[in-house]
Specification:
By secondary structure, this protein is α/β, with parallel strands linked by helices. It contains 7 helices and 8 strands.
């Protein structure tokens, strides 16, 4: 979720969303969803993602027995079947509900010798991580917390927060009992305490924890994209550790 800490940067927010949408889109669908755009002139410099929704197989023959791919609905065959371009040597017939040409869908493909069966599935039914989704809001930090933090463990990241070393056990216990996590990051120009102050709210009162995930960082600031990788790495470890018992 991209929130807006300053309305004067709304165009920057739109550009960031466009770049992230492009990055997460499977390579074989990009030309179909992203027409020529001067804002995308240098996207070739972005590192490619090797997430599961970016498969490399280009032929049906090379597919594993079970695979999941994003696709574009290109034609309706009958009441229940559609042709979907999933980046292979030819579109595949897929059974599904009411679709329309141009829709972006997720397809489960099962291959048994030479027979291929495909059906539509929801993202939540893919049994593994299938890439991120990008949303944006013109609202600020407080709105994001109020909208998405009601049933989540809300963790703000800041060099002024408690060191992860001090609260690692407490955080691990809470993560083991919560199904949703809302991680908050500052902007390139302002940290979360400054953003909250500009919005007239107290950061400590609207979140569950303010955590310094990079104690002894050795630099005045950590870039948001660097903090994102560091924080997710720590959270990933904590989620996989067995809950502590007393």
């Amino acid at each position: 979720m991209l929130y807006c800490d300053d309305v004067s940067y709304i165009e920057d927010q739109r550009l960031m969303k466009k770049l992230l949408d492009y990055a997460v889109c499977p390579q074989y669908l990009r030309k179909k969803f992203f027409p020529l755009d001067p804002h995308l002139k240098y996207v070739g410099l972005m590192p490619p993602l090797r997430t599961p929704n970016h498969p490399l197989e280009k032929s049906i023959r090379d597919l594993p027995n079970l695979s999941y791919r994003e696709g574009l609905v290109v034609k309706r065959l009958d009441e229940e079947k559609y042709l979907v371009d999933v980046g292979l040597d030819k579109p595949i017939a897929v059974k599904g509900g009411k679709l329309r040409e141009g829709m972006r869908v997720i397809v489960e493909i099962r291959k048994d010798e030479e027979e291929v069966k495909a059906k539509l599935v929801a993202r939540r039914d893919v049994p593994f991580y299938f890439g991120f989704r990008v949303q944006s809001t013109r609202g600020g930090l407080r709105e994001v917390v109020e909208r998405y933090g009601k049933e989540a463990l809300v963790i703000a990241t800041s060099k002024y927060g408690k060191s992860i070393v001090e609260i690692v056990e407490e955080l691990q216990q809470e993560l083991s009992t919560r199904s949703n996590i809302l991680l908050l990051f500052g902007s390139p120009l302002r940290g979360l305490y400054d953003i909250a102050k500009r919005e007239g709210c107290d950061l400590d009162s609207i979140v569950d924890h303010v955590v310094n995930f990079i104690p002894g960082q050795g630099t005045e600031t950590v870039r948001t994209e660097e903090a994102l990788c560091a924080v997710l790495a720590v959270i990933n470890v904590l989620l996989r550790l067995k809950p502590l018992t007393k």
